[in-house]
Every structure is written in C-alpha cells, then in structure tokens.
C-alpha cells in the first residue's frame, strides 16, 4: 500500500468544514510488481483464471495493467465500502482480453453507487464533495488506463441509471474528433490527442455521470479574477460568495495525453439542459471540478468560457481536461439604501442612549430598586449590548469565522432580551395574583432565585444546541445573522413566537384579575393603580418588541421595502420606550 502524502490545503473550504485528517484521493496505475492476475497479453491467457459468463468476443491489447483505486481517507460509508470491495473483485478477476467487460462493470458499478447513495447522502456536505472528488479522479484514471487495451474504433458503454461512456481509439485519425451522448457532445482536434509521447494508439473518452450531482450539492464556486471584475463592473457591491445550481450532467473527459492542463487548442462541449432563463442576479457559467491536495474540491471557471448559451443548451470551450458541468450561479449584491442607513444609525444611537440612561437609573437609584426594576435592568443591558453589536458589526462579513461569532452573539442577546421580557410578564402576573391570595408573600424571593438562571441560561442552551448542530448557518453573505436555509432562522423565531404567546396569555389573565379587583370595595387603591400601570407598560413593551420582529419576518415580497423602514423605526424606539 502506498504512503499517504496528501496535505491539507484548500483555502476555499468553509471553516466549519475543516477536517484535521484531510480527505485524500489516491488512484494510480499499479505497474510495479503486479500480481499475475493484473497483467496479461492478447492471445496469452495461460495460467489466468477464466472470466465467468464471458463470451470471448472482446479482445484487448497486450501489456495492460489493472489500476489501483483506493477509498477516500477518513470517510466511513457502508455503501462506499461495498463499491470498493466490488472494484477489488474486478481487479482479482481481470483478464486483458476481456477488458470491455471490465470497463462495462466499472461504469455500471459507479452508476449503481450514485443511483442509490444511501448513507453517502447523510454525510456532511464537505465529505460528500470529498467522495465526489475521489470518484471523478479515480474513474478517469481507471478508464483512461483500461481503454488503452481496446481495439481501434468507437465504443460506447451504457449503464441502467444513465451513466454513459464513449471512447474513440485510433492509431491516427482525422483532424476533428466528435463524441456524442444524449446530453453532451465533445469536439476536439485529434492533434491534441497525438501530442503525447506515449507509443501506441491514441485514446479519447467522454463519460456522463448524471448521478454525481447528488454529491455536489452546495459545492463552492470560485470565479477567476476576470469574471469577478465583470460582475463588479455590472453591479456595485457584489459580494464574493456565490451560490450555484447544476443545470447539466457532470461529465469527465480524458485522453492518453497526460499533459492536459494547457492544451494547444480548446475542446468544445455542447451541453443540453433543462430550460432556464437567468434572472437579474444570476449567470450561467461553464465550470470544471478543481481538485485540491487534501482531496476536497470546488467548481472553478479558470480556462473555460461560454461560447453561446440558450434556454436549453450551452456551448463551452476549455483549454484543459477535467470534469465539467454547466451551472447557474446566484451572486449576492449588497444594496445600499442611504435613507434606511441614516434612520438605522440615528434610531439605534438614540435607543442606545436611552437604554444606557435607564440601566444607570435602575442600577444607581437605591430607592426604586425592587424585583421589577431588577428585571428592567437586565432587559436594558441585553438590548443595549444587542443594539450596539448590531450597529457596529452586523455587516462585517469579510471574515466568515468572525461573522459567525457575531451572529451567534446577536442570537443570544436578542433571545435573552425576550426571555427577560417573559420574566417581566410572569412577575406581573404573580404580582396581580398576589392581590387575591392571602399571605402570598414569596413572589419576590422566588423571582430573585430563578430569574438569572432562566434569563441567561435558557438562551444559552438554545444557542449552544443551534451552533453545535449547524454552525455553518451562522452568518449570511450580506449580514452576520442567522441563515434562512433549512429553517434555521426558526431557532430564533420559534422561541420568540413562544414567548410572545405566553406573555400575551399572562397579560390577559393579569387584566382580568385587575378588572375583577377594581369592582371590589375593599381594594387597595394604590396597589391596584400600581399594578394597572405595570400592566400597561408591560403590554406596550410586549407589543413594541414583538411587533418589531414581526415586521422583520415580513420583509419579503413587494412590501419588503416598506417593512424594512417600519422595522428600523420601531427598532430604534425600543430603548426610548424602556
């Protein structure tokens, strides 16, 4: 077994995807000290095991070796292990004279693996991309080696789920080579294939792998500087992060010319894909899968360009060989609204000033200190810190790790604010209930005992669980806030809606108690008036905080711009009201 020399080096991977073990791709031709069953010559099958169910009609060239293909390092998958066990069996039973049968088995094996990936789809995205890199590199290596044993001519291999392989083998040929399949056509100059110093026939191959897209979901796209400059010229504020969706099948092209990084003439691919019309922030790209040293990879546009694109087809030209596809990229634009920015800064600055004054008042005025003012103090502190962080760092998206930390801190502080508001509602209900219960004197002691563990502990538990389950969803391309993918935003909206509903129930019960108490002739007027005032303040506070985030949720569709202004204005009034 060869030594693993892979190194971890991939600047395009997200911080949450980092794997200290790496994910190596190792696939090479086994041409030293090969066991007897890995080699054979045409017409010389003496001493070799017979191939079951072979008709003997496929005859290969002499001197071919069966290549090795090792699994990606650090990936645990029953489905993948079964695939590589099947590949090892092919190696043990390999007979060069029946190389076409072997190639068909390899294509069918990859096809079945991708048709039903099973536990592979449960892996993290980065691990799925690692498996895809291994399969693409390994399949290309295996097919390019085995195809050298084929006789001259054009051959096709088809698998049940749509994986197709087209090969052309020639000693010498015409100027142009064309390989066509259902969804893609490849055209190249035969001189490019003949540039190799290898003796013997020249081989060029094209394999379409429609199932590979299952393992390349959310794969990163890296645009070359020239294409980035075009986007920045067309739109101000274009952000570096780009999301993409595959439009075509993933294909791999190979030849026995090993120097395929900078071909003397470009290769043309004509992809057929489902009908698509790019939107104002979308663009179609011809891309290739660029492998990294640690076994991961990303889509790249380097060396590829679009010749023409229509609704259902795209023509690409590339100056190198690899695995290719056509994808639709959605890029993000940081749109500036000057008036909204001014309102945000003025409103939050005023809110911060009022919250600071309120906190100092509750903290320094000994005569008014009680359970209610203590709850108000904690609410003021949480809102002050949340608004300050929002004002200073909400758009600091340059460093993803820092942005994720900011998003997590905002998540915690706003949840803590709502939790303290819930405790205020509970305290108000217990105070009102105290008016109707004889010797009900333990409200204050209970609140003082449990309010800090609940007020700061419950939000911490929610944030820790959220961060542990999906850390990569903290931070978006435009804001250091929670991502909306997979409903992750509900780790904030869910608790907020729950608190809003519980507090509303508390306030309705409090109003009912106060109303009934007002009808009693033996009421303590001063206590009732105080309770009524607290009820009014707490209800207004609930509406201010609750309505603010309701407006934030409604920032979609045609009314998004209006809702953004209302959200900003009311958000700035929170501190003023408190």
Automatic annotation (TrEMBL):
InterPro entries cross-referenced by the UniProt entry: GAIN_B, GAIN_dom_sf, GPCR_2-like_7TM, GPCR_2_ADGRE2_ADGRE5, GPCR_2_secretin-like, GPS
Please give one Gene Ontology molecular function term for this protein. G protein-coupled receptor activity
Q: Where is the G-protein coupled receptors family 2 profile domain?
A: 340-578
Q: Which domain of life is it from?
A: Eukaryota
Localization, UniProt: Cell membrane
Major location category of this protein:
membrane
Stretches for region Disordered: 1-70
Gene Ontology terms, cellular component aspect? Answer: plasma membrane
- The residues that cross the membrane are 339-363, 375-393, 399-423, 450-468, 488-514, 534-554
Its membrane topology, per UniProt? Multi-pass membrane protein
Instruction: Cite a single Pfam family from the UniProt record.
Output: 7tm_2
SMART domains cross-referenced by the UniProt entry: GPS
Segments forming domain GAIN-B? 155-334
Alphabetized UniProt keyword annotations: Calcium, Cell adhesion, Cell membrane, Disulfide bond, EGF-like domain, Glycoprotein, Membrane, Receptor, Repeat, Signal, Transmembrane, Transmembrane helix
Tell me one GO biological process term.
cell surface receptor signaling pathway
According to its UniProt record, which protein family does this protein belong to? Answer: Belongs to the G-protein coupled receptor 2 family. Adhesion G-protein coupled receptor (ADGR) subfamily.
Official protein name in the record: EGF-like module-containing mucin-like hormone receptor-like 2
